[in-house]
Design goal:
With 157 residues, this protein is mainly α. The protein has 6 helices and no strands. The protein has one domain (3-156). Residues 13-140 form the Fatty acid hydroxylase domain.
């Protein structure tokens, strides 16, 4: 198989795997042991642009940086492309979660595609729970099928 195809598949596979990592981390770490950092994302008790929850950006960036460094400095090709996949997922997470869903920057407010409406709706359902217990919809790019079906149905009406 061509090297560039293998590298692309590594990036794609890592990107897809990161959705599972994000779901697991969100459900069991952010709504568990590290709720102290994530709480202000659900409970707005401040007027600051930044949240304690933003520390997760740094926590999630570390594996990508380590993989990129291993690939760049030690010639570990697979690690480099895994680092690219983690970084691309991180960028997608920032654009979808922080910019599109939470509107930290007021752009994409009127995006009306069924996919975007579904992930926005699922995230709103996630935020209806202000405590760490009884959460739902912990994914970011892939949410329960019912939200996709619901928004597709409203498109046909």
């Amino acid at each position: 198989m061509e090297v560039s195809l293998i590298n692309f598949l590594i990036v794609l596979g890592t990107f897809i795997a990161m959705e599972g990592v994000a779901w697991f981390t969100h459900k069991y770490i952010m709504h568990g042991l590290l709720w102290v950092l994530h709480r202000d994302h659900h409970h707005k008790d401040h007027d600051s642009f930044l949240e304690r929850n933003d520390f997760f950006f740094l926590i999630f960036a570390i594996p990508g940086i380590v993989c990129l460094a291993l690939g760049s400095f030690y010639g570990n090709n697979a690690a480099f492309w895994i680092g690219i996949g983690i970084t691309v997922y991180g960028a997608a997470y920032f654009f979808v979660h922080d910019i599109f869903i939470h509107q930290r920057f007021k752009v994409f407010r009127n995006a009306d595609h069924w996919y975007f409406r579904a992930i926005r709706r699922a995230h709103k359902m996630h935020h209806k729970h202000v405590n760490k217990e009884h959460g739902e919809c912990f994914g970011m790019l892939w949410v329960p099928l019912k939200y996709f079906l619901e928004t597709r149905k409203t498109n046909k009406v």
